Amino acid sequence: MTHNWIADLVALMADSRTGRQTIEKLLAEQYSALTAFFRRRSRRAVDVHDLAQEVYLRMLRVSDPDSIENPEGYLFTVAANLLKEHAVREGRTSTGLDISCAESEGLLVFAPTVEHELDSVRRNARLREVLNQLSPKCRAAVVLQYQHGWSYAQIAEELGVSVNMVKKYLSQGLAHCRRRMSSLA
Fold first, then answer.
1. Which tens digit of pLDDT belongs to each residue from 145-169?
2. Contact present, 142 and 131 (Cβ < 8 Å)
3. What is each CA distance from 90 to 43, 148, 160, in whole angstroms?
4. Cβ atoms of residues 150 and 144 within 8 Å
């Protein structure tokens, strides 16, 4: 019995073509969603198409693409993993600011002035004054929530009150701060 290696090779190539066509069809359908995914998550807009191309290459390496149950989910999982790798690589090689990205333009325009710094100092002093006008538990609730990021339950336990009371303290404290800060401005 002879093994027909030519038939096996032709079958393998046909399977490879079918798998490649499946990948190409998926990427054609999902390309705009994929680039939007990268655009939202990448710091540099110039990387978007390169990342999409890398996803395509990685998808081509899948040995049996027809066996993937959720091709779109798999595609975006590959994209998310690639983005993580890219972020790690970028973190190692670049610590600077990319001046070509839209987010950094706002940072470059804003240069703190002496007036801005003085205004910030005045606002902080006013806020301390307004917070000191609150009852001790109300002030503690506001500070623990907004300065330290504690949950309602943590604050309630610390102050020895119910979670609902913490919500009332925060509501009263914020209302007072808004009123007093706007009247002092």
1. 888 888 999 999 999 999 999 999 9
2. yes
3. 10, 31, 47
4. yes
Of residues 89 and 107, more confidently modeled: 89
**Residue 23 DSSP code:** H
Domain tally for the chain? 2
Q: Are 49 and 96 in contact (CB under 8 A)?
A: no
> Cα dihedral angle (118, 123, 128, 129), rounded to 10 degrees?
100
**Do 128 and 63 belong to one domain?**
no
User: What pLDDT, on a 0 to 100 scale, did the predictor assign at position 180?
Assistant: 85
> Residue 155 in contact with residue 145, Cβ under 8 Å?
yes
More confident of the two residues 8 and 20: 20
Say which CATH number the domain at 136 has: 1.10.10.10
- In terms of Cα–Cα distance, which of 180, 185, 178, 173 is closest to 143? 173
> What pLDDT score was predicted for residue 25?
84
